[in-house]
Amino acid sequence: MNKWIIAFSLVLVLFSCSLTATQETNFNAQAANYLKAVNGGLMLKVISKTHPSYVKHIKLKGDEIFKKTFSKKNIRKERVSNIEVRQIKEKDYSIQIAFMAESKDFFNETIERKPYVAISENNGLDWYFVPYKVWKNKNIYLKVKRLF
C-alpha cells in the first residue's frame, strides 16, 4: 500500500510542475521569436518581448543607458540558439520558467550558456523575458511576484 502512495505522490509532483500543451506551444513560439530577434539584432522586437517593467526600469535610468542596454551592438554579439528549461514554477495564472540559452559565434562554436527567465502572467498566453541576473537582482523592481 505504501508503494502505491509513494508512486501516486511522485506522479502528482511530476505533473504539477509541467506545462499544458497550449502553454508549452506558446512558450516555444514566443521564445523562438525572442531569440530570433536577439540573433537578428532587431532592437524593437527584443524590447517588445522583454518584460515591460524591466524596460520601464531601464528607461527611467535615461536615454543613454536605454540605448546601451538595447543597442544592436550589444544584442548582436553572438547567436543565441538552443534553450534548455531548468525550472518551472506556477501559481494561479502566473508561470515562470528559468532556462539556459546557448550562445554560438558565427562559426557555430559554443561561446557560453546564458540563463534567462520567461514570465507569463496570463496562464501561458503571452511570455516576456529577462536575463536571469536581472531576475535575481532585488534592486530592480519587476511588477511580478518572483516564484523562485
Task: Write up this protein.
By secondary structure, the chain is an alpha+beta fold. It is built from 7 helices and 4 strands, in the order ααααααββββα. A 4-stranded antiparallel β-sheet has the order 1-2-3-4. A hairpin with a 7-residue loop joins β3 and β4. α2 runs antiparallel to α3 and α4 crosses α5. The radius of gyration is 17 Å and the shape is globular.
Question: How would you summarize the topology of this molecule?
Answer:
Elements: H1 2-16, H2 21-40, H3 43-49, H4 52-60, H5 63-70, H6 72-75, E1 79-91, E2 94-104, E3 110-120, E4 128-131, H7 132-136
Antiparallel strand pairs: 1-2, 2-3, 3-4
Q: What's the SSE pattern? A: HHHHHHEEEEH
For the secondary structure, the number of strands is 4
- Class based on secondary structure composition and strand pairing: alpha+beta
User: Low-confidence parts lasting 5 or more residues at pLDDT below 50?
Assistant: 1-16
Strand order of the largest sheet: 1-2-3-4
Strand content: 25-35%
- In percent, how helical is the residue content? 40-55%
Ends distance? 34 Å
Shape, principal axes of CA atoms: globular
Supply Rg. Answer: 17 Å
Give a quick rundown of the structure.
This protein is α+β, with helices and mostly antiparallel strands and 148 residues long. It contains 7 helices and 4 strands; from the N terminus they run H-H-H-H-H-H-E-E-E-E-H.
Keywords for this entry:
7 helices, disordered N terminus, four-stranded antiparallel β-sheet, 148 residues, alpha+beta
